[in-house]
Amino acid sequence: MKAIRVGTLSRAGSMLTLPSDAPLSSCPRLLCPPTEGVSFVRKGHSMRAAELIYPLTFRLTDMPIEDPGPGEVQVRIEAVGVCGSDLHAYSEGAVGSTPDVYPMVLGHEPAGRIVKTGVGVTGLTAGDRGALEPALYCYHCEFCLSGHHNVCANIRFLSNPHYPGFFRELVNLPIVNFRPIPAGMSFDEAALAEPLSIALHSIRLASIHAGETVAVIGAGPIGLLTIAALRAAKAIRIWAVEPLAHRRELARGIGAEVVIERGEAVEEILSGTGQRGVDCAIDCAAGEHTTGQAIQVTGNAGRVALTGIHSSPFVPMDGLAMRPKELTIFNVRRSNHETQQALELLQAHAEWFAPLLTHTREIEQIGDAFAIASQYRDGVGKMIVRP
Question: Any bridge partners for residue 280, and if so which?
């Protein structure tokens, strides 16, 4: 199969140009055919997209786009945040237990503007601005019917294999996946709604209340947003554990009272709590030893929330430490209808979140964007790509 327009190839920040009639076989290590049902021949309406075609390598290409169907809106994507799971797919070839299937379009932290509406759409019109939700639920399986939409048995998550994400110019979505944003909110700010909703979900899942003490392990973007959510929940004291100096400063600025390096964490947190431990620890790093560290710093009858995605199926967890403390472990699976709450928090406290938005790149520079984000270069907080 040939791609009529291959466009440019971006690898770890560099750009390569392929002939316009280059076959897919000319792209080394392109292991799988294009997404089923998607043609890359320019015909009718088309849009530009950035495809990951093998680890560390993106290709700019054209994809077809139909008019929105009944009950759908077509949205011009204006900003997409680079998520930690995007970085797993980019550098490791998998997100947790889900391997990449190439080519694939990543990106699931989007915001944009409606350009068309489908039949039957009311209350929304061209020009409306919004944050977009990437999860498409079936609404009829046992988990949806019990309110656990985030573990829907038939979920389609845009940016997973076979379901193109948002590093593209246009997308058609059901109206329930479009969340209008206030006039004063930028698209970059709105792109924080999806990861912030995960942070809010983790706090709700772990039943964190005002006046509790919390340790956040890992102060990458999701950890920083978790600190902000804890601040809004009125946690009385927040520790941030992070090896990178620039992230420790971001953590301090967004609400952590104590910021410490990883090697000092257990001793410092136990000392700071009179050897009691915190009420809850949230592992946003999902490193080899971070979950074990979260268990160590949590006190009796405490909770541990696992928000980050581990690269390995097995991680050390000290059962001898967990059992006598009767710890409860929560596994966080994305979010479950916390997007509106996230938008309200972003609007109410825009000054908290502004320092996180450190870098932007156009889609032509997506290779550079991912190289910076994956290597933690240049003091990067949240990287935004503009399709």
Answer: 214, 303
